[in-house]
Amino acid sequence: MSIPHYHVVAAIILHEEHILCVQKGIAKYSYVSYKYEFPGGKVEADESHQTALRRELWEELSLDIHVGKLYHTVFHAYPHFHITLSSYLCSAISIATLRLTEHIDYRWLLPVALPRLDWAAADLPIVTKLARGSL
Ligand SMILES: Nc1nc2c([nH]c(=O)n2[C@@H]2O[C@H](COP(=O)(O)OP(=O)(O)OP(=O)(O)O)[C@@H](O)[C@H]2O)c(=O)[nH]1
Question: 16, 63, 65, 122: least buried by Cβ within 10 Å?
Answer without folding.
Answer: 16
